[in-house]
Amino acid sequence: MDHRSIMSGKRGDPIAMAMRAVLRMASVPYAIAVRQRNRNYDRQVADIQQCEVPVISVGNLTTGGTGKTPIVCLLAKRFREQGLRVAIVSRGYGRGDADANDEAMELHARLPDVPHIQNPDRVAAARIAIEELEAQIVLMDDGFQHRRLHRDLDLVVIDATCPFGFGYQLPRGLLRESIHGLSRADAVLITRCQAVDPTTIETIRKTISTYNAAIPILASNHTPIGLLEYPETNLPLRNIDQQKVAVLSAIGNPDAFEHTVRQCGATVQTARHLPDHDPYDPETVASLRDWARQLGDEITYIVCTH
Q1: Among 151, 161, 194, 197, fewest CB within 10 Å belongs to which?
Q2: Which residues of the chain have pLDDT under 50?
Q3: Could you tell me the strand order of the sheet in which 244-249 lies?
Q4: pLDDT score recorded for residue 276
Q5: Rounded Cα distance, 133 and 72, in Å
Q6: Which among 149, 100, 95, 98 has a CA at the least distance from the CA of 122?
Q7: What digits encode the pLDDT tens for the residues 158-197?
Q8: What pLDDT is recorded for position 84?
């Protein structure tokens, strides 16, 4: 079932309308719990742990798909270029008991000399980074709602293609907390600006400023640089120009990925969207094999997320 089409209101059939009504009711107790939790931190009722080194949080208001991982990667590279020992800490969504998840493997491939500690307890992860790995700066991936760890800079990433989670908190929408949470952010980075028109960007900026008038707002584009044919053959993007392709993804915002593929000149004939951070278990792999075999000769490439 395409949950995003239900949340967004694209589906107008009676079943979708009924599901939106139920999900909206379910979002009320969630919103109350999140608001109370934030109040506890705001009033210092809940304990906040401080580290001996600077902590930068890269997070978002919505669930997944905003483009945080490239930002974390970019920041880590810049700090390493300055000679600083940097470590990344994250929760580790979608990983097994002893395995790193897809984002961890992606970061390791790009940053083999930057340690990445995955632990739902970000305070414990940060202590390992500092005490055992001698990190001089800690990057907390997806840390905006993890308020137990003090941060010196709170960077919030907002996806221009779906900036405010369809206007509702979970499970009716994609918001993890109210947009009022922007009041405690130090900076906002709007991603995928190339995918929307300038008027949309200006509307997003005005909405952000409504909740935090003085906050710096940055804008960025997501630009593909090439294709990777498994396991390590680099191909130019022109290979899919004017080609009929199938798309496979397991990310938080599959629509944005499809848009990127189309911008490369490809025609997306069909798409298969798996849940964000899908572990690709044997049953899923078998299903994908069957799907690929049935695509037909007109499909020249299956383009998937890395």
Answers
A1: 197
A2: 97-98
A3: 267-273, 244-249, 301-304
A4: 85
A5: 19
A6: 149
A7: 999 999 999 999 999 999 999 999 999 999 999 999 999 9
A8: 98
Q: Are 60 and 182 in contact (CB under 8 A)?
A: no
Q: What is the rounded CA–CA span in Å between residue 122 and residue 89?
A: 7
- Look up residue 258 and give its two tokens: 């499809």
Q: What single DSSP character describes residue 135?
A: -
Identify whether 32 is part of a domain. Answer: no
d(CA 87, CA 114): 6
SS3 8: helix
34 falls within a domain: no
Domain that holds residue 288: 227-304
- Segment 26-47, tens digit of pLDDT: 999 999 999 999 999 999 999 9
Structure tokens of 259?
């848009």
Q: Cite the DSSP H helix spans in 82-234.
A: 102-110, 122-127, 198-211
The encoded tokens of residue 199 equal: 């008027």
98 plus 147 within the same structural domain: yes
* Domain-embedded: residue 207: yes
Question: CA angle at residue 179 from 178 to 184, to 5 degrees?
Answer: 100
* The residue type at 288: L
